[in-house]
Design goal:
Layout (H helix, E strand, L loop, with lengths): L6 E9 L3 E5 L5 E5 L15 E6 L9 E8 L2 E4 L5 H10 L11 E8 L3 E9 L2 E10 L1 E3 L2 E4 L5 H15 L3 E8 L6 E4 L5 H13 L2 E9 L4 E7 L13
Parallel strand pairs: 3-5, 9-12, 11-13, 12-14
Antiparallel strand pairs: 1-2, 1-4, 2-3, 4-5, 5-6, 7-8, 8-9, 10-11, 14-15
Helix pairs in contact: 2-3
């Protein structure tokens, strides 16, 4: 998928969750919108290179958007709005092996009590509900989700469990926006309730798959599958 054009700069600070001050190459400092509700742990630090997009729409409060950051030479997709677009392209091109063979792909379909599923696949194979979660957090060679407490994420898992109980297929797809990791795991220390619900969903038949993104200067694409690991609660030691 084509992205950009981008302007590279240097991150000064991220604050109030959705704002970031960035120094451009000409030393101008701009405030960019940061479309990421998480903590962005392991993908922000003062002084790192970043990529911004510029939007001339007069209706926008901020003309600049933070798109990517670079940690130790690895570019990371920090704009969470792009992950669904990446997955949509891969679905259209039949590049997600676990999700091929469906004739129709619909996005943002209502389901459950008060949710919208990211993608609903349908056809002779039946129906498959796919939720997409963008992953930016890394711990060594392992990516982890979530990087902040997410009640919405737990609700989505409840909805997917209901889908399986109703006889349809349900998939949680982790779209990993960095290339320096080899596995994906639940961040149980960040949100124990989400991790517990993920274990329950997996046991109930919700499929967990993950793909890493390949990130270039002007393109991004879903690349290699990654194993989802540590899907059982760690046993606690007795004193």
């Amino acid at each position: 998928m084509k992205v950009g054009p981008f302007v590279e700069g240097r991150l000064l600070q991220r604050y109030k969750r959705f704002l970031a001050d960035v120094e451009l190459p000409d030393a101008t400092v701009v405030t960019a919108h940061c479309a990421n509700p998480g903590r962005m742990t392991s993908c922000t630090a003062p002084g790192i290179p970043v990529r911004l997009s510029y939007h001339a729409d007069p209706k926008r409060k901020l003309a600049w958007s933070l798109e990517q950051t670079c940690m130790e030479g690895t570019w990371i997709l920090t704009n969470t709005l792009i992950h669904n677009r990446i997955v949509a392209e891969a679905l259209a091109e039949q590049r997600i092996a676990e999700l091929t063979g469906y004739e129709r792909v619909a996005s943002e379909q209502r389901y459950g009590e008060r949710s919208r599923v990211d993608f609903l696949l349908s056809g002779e194979r039946g129906r498959c509900y796919v939720e997409v979660k963008g992953v930016t957090l890394a711990r060594g060679s392992a990516a982890a989700f979530p990087d902040a407490v997410t009640e919405r994420g737990r609700r989505h898992l409840d909805e997917l469990i209901s889908v399986v109980q109703g006889g349809d297929r349900a998939v949680m797809l982790f779209c990993v926006g960095r290339a320096d990791v080899d596995t994906v795991e639940p961040a149980a220390d960040v949100d124990p309730a989400y991790a517990a619900r993920l274990y329950e969903a997996h046991a109930a038949g919700v499929e967990l798959i993950a793909y890493r993104c390949a990130i270039g200067e002007d393109s991004v694409r879903l690349d290699a599958p990654l194993p989802v690991v540590n899907l059982r609660p760690r046993a606690t030691r007795r004193p």
